[in-house]
User: What shape does this take?
Amino acid sequence: MSKLIIRKVAVLGAGVMGAQIAAHCANADVPVVLFDLPAKDGKPNGIVDKAIASLKKLDPKPLGSKDRAQYIEAANYGSDLEKLRECDLIIEAIAEKMEWKLDLYAKVAPFIRTDAIFASNTSGLPINALSEGMTVALRPRFCGIHFFNPPRYMPLVELIPTKTTDGQMLDDLETWLTTRLGKSIVRAKDTPNFVANRVGVFSILAVMHHTQQLGLGFDEVDALTGPSIGRPKSATYRTADVVGLDTLAHVIGTMDATLPKDPWHGLFQAPVWLKALIEKGALGQKTRAGIFRKEGKKIMVLDVAQQDYRPSAGEVAPEVAAILKNRNPAEKFAQLRASAHPQAQFLWAIFRDVFHYCAYHLGDIADNARDLDFAMRWGFGWSMGPFETWQAAGWADIAQAIQADIDAGKTMVNAPLPGWVFARKGVHEAAGSYSAADDALKARSALTVYGRQLYPEQVLGEAPKDRGETIWENEGVRLWTRPDQDARIGILSITSKMHAIGSEVLDGVIEAVARAERDLDGLVVWHDAPFAVGANLMQVAETLKAGQFDLLERTVDKFQRASMTLKHAQVPVVAAVQGMALGGGCEFVMHASHRVMALESYVGLVEAGVGLIPAGGGCKEFALQAHQLAQRAAGGDVYLYIQNSFQTIAMATVAKSALEAVQLGFAKASDDILFNPHELLYAAIRRARAMAEAGYRPPMMSRAVTVAGRNGIATCEMMLINMAEGGFISAHDYTVAKAAATALCGGEVETNARVSEQWILDVERAQFMALLKNEKTQQRIVHMLETGKPLRN
Amino acid sequence: MKQIQEAYIVAATRTPVSKRNGMFRSVRPDDMLAHVLRSVVGQVPGLDASEIGDVIVGCAMPEAEQGMNVARIGLLLAGLPDTVPGVTTNRFCASGIQAVADAANQIRLGQADVMIAAGTESMSVMPQIMGNKVSLNPAIFAKQENFGIAFGMGLTAEKVAEQWKISREDQDAFALQSNQRACAAIAAGHFKDEITPYTVRTHVPGEGGTVRVIESLCENDEGPRADAAIEKLGKLRPVFAARGSVTAGNSSQMSDGAGAVLLMSEAAVKRYGVTPIARFVSFSVAGVPPHIMGIGPIEAIPRALKAGGLTQSQLDWIELNEAFAAQSLAVMRQLELDPAKVNPLGGAIALGHPLGATGAIRTATIMSAMQRDPSVKYGMVTMCIGTGMGAAGIFERV
Assistant: This one.
């Protein structure tokens, strides 16, 4: 591993990207100095102060928790350049103007230490030209560092070396970005727009081109180019609105200016309608009108023929939808090609032209096909990159089909496919991915940091990863090990769909812990995201329908036992959490001995949505926390610590990051938060090993938990009666929340009574069962299963 | 026992009123109290402070920084002699006027010749508006009749708005008028005489481990909004009911402040040769259902008038605490109070409502009005009270 130490980062430019990059550094416990111009009037740091304040309002949230903003220090180029001397990494993220950047470089260079790294977040300017604006001494430590918007959530960072960039520095920076900020790195060449934007913007141009050719509506195209082909919900035109139509036109303009020799150059023009919108000031989301416009609750879309907005209603035609549902990619593409439906022709055309473009340019723009595919996944949210899509659909067939379309003049331009396309059967193989520049297969990066990713993201066609050795499994879980990592740390993986927790999972957990206690030194609960979406509602609904309340109560009891088994196991149980951990999943998280969490963990007790309360020990854990916290407070009042958890449960609040999960009490400050989810298993195994080696002892069941009791319940009820009388909650919401209050306060006992943990579990279970028998709760469960949405009854 | 002598108000003052977490966010309520006590005693030169029979202080949440019998602490901090006693009294929002009435009664019964009534409240120091620790009796939820005890004040205002049919538009118009009247009064300097300016000393980290003290002189009420506008008020969302009409804009502001009133018997007035401002006429309290607590004055005002042998038309100046525009309008309409006489300088929606201090503060406002305007003969301070009561105290200019 690299010993690159970055104690402080400076970000130059407090625009959308700069401020959000700063926020993400603050998330990762790296203090940041955020610079911008001194304000013309008011406080000198006014511009940056405003940018920091707006970070707290943005959605999706750039900050893992609001209090992180305090780690971003506001500064300005007028009076604060001295602060740069303290910074080990300086990221420049100002406007995309060569002269401005070079001016700034000249200004800041005297204040940058020669052992610091200086990197530009430019999305398109030539990195080598920028490097020449740096002093000679700083050039070896200069490179491009291209984040994608929003930088907290988009995994991709393109690293672009110059001719003079120090190789070791680049490796160190890649390591740091990967493990500290959790980013996924693609090394790009210094070609216009680098990799992801080069292909991504071309793809948008191709979509626009064929939209016009086939006379489709923008709404129709968005229906076609979203999740139905594995791309984000905002699809094409909605994404353009979000990005800003002026920005998009600017990027297209850059391609026009910088790629004169690109065979597609003639097509790098903003369409007339796009220019017209920009002229009118309809720039998309930021001006509340663009390609789409909201009128009250209705979404309107621009109709180019009518020169006006009409209600957005575009849908995928049933016959095209049927083709897209085909799981065999070869058949799917053959059907798209064969169909006379304009939507099918459109889809084939946009795939074909992107394939054509990528094949033609692979050698110039990317080291290898894997990098290009990953760039599109990580930077544009495509579920598969273009080359793997092509390869899955049958490399040779698609190649021939493209060639036929080139010959027939159907492609956007008639540039020939490169020879290697016909010489190969695909680009991704077990041995590596094809590099057109080197005409060879390229293996994955050998940087040590990637050894921490036991199950990295893979492109289609790569060699399958080691599944480890199975010790035991049932229909709900698999208990296994990775002997190459640690043969005596078990890995418990939930194998059900969406990792929902049904009876078989509970049996599996209890059995796995027993085996771990007997045969292993520790246990890690790990599987891909989501960690768990909660209890298996379908099972609950079926048992309810059969009126088997005894069975249900036994299952709830088993849930509690499973949670308690995790908590009181004789070996450490480390939960490796990523994605959603809701309801019962959250309760497992709360009961583990320790948590290793990805930053992007969404944790919450959401049972209220289906008219229930947490009954796998979730209420009990909060009651226990309140007791422990109150012991450290003067006066020892428990209720103060109940009130927030009551609101958390009653409102089904979900933590939007691991940092928030700690604040809400689902996790502890002593837990590990990792920024790269692919490192979870590696870290969790080692954490379990360390705990075992440090003489792990399970916590004991408390027999004297001070609870808030009757007065506590009444005080919660005060909030409820005000909300009910004010019409904010329904009568059944009241009932459900009161049940939660009752469990959290340890039942209708005297305030400050001391009860056992088991008593609180019994209260929790009794309240849960009473709700299950309530018709309104049953209606909520059925409604959730049928519609996927909570019922407010 | 029977009244044997009259009680006169000879001096009254108050602090400016701060918004919650505003200019007084770090000011302690016991310091605010000491400040007004010093000031009101200073208004009677030559007063032998040891003659003060008692210092009665209203406070609605007498705990934490304003706990421990804040009256006694405040008077000691003010430098009054050890021999002067102090008592804290609590009738929620009427605590301040209750203190004035209690002090007057001590004199009227002949038990004292010099008394101080005061009120102090900092809502900034309360982590929760209902006090540092809230704990409700489970019995409240056992009987529907008792639910009203648990209602938030805003919710009771919604109930009043519903029952007395007070529209959102009327509430907002009333709120706007309150702000306009308050701003005009400040501009005209009408509060100058009653306010004793307060110098806030804020301790902040300075250079090299030293603490820097920032001093700022506060002379005016912080609450009134010169930019209040009916369109802006109309855009605010109801806070207490999903389809309600009570908003942050047409409710009283949460505030910090203190007020103090010095009372004397006729004998003391003569002895010290002071000119009294007003005679204390009467005081009444009455209970109403808790869920519509805002109508309390409807019951209390007629009782106070009767006790003073007055008719409503004789009142020239009414300080009706604007807990909410909804309840203020309900009270005014039902009793047919003359809107011109009610809160001529604006009310709590603009000026703020530091709970237990308000009664003493608004008494100071009436005293100031009587000194400024000879046509003001009878003045009244009245308010609604949480959990369902009303209070009204009447003064006569002398």
Q: What stands out?
A: Chain A has 29 helices and 24 strands. Chain A has a mean pLDDT of 96.
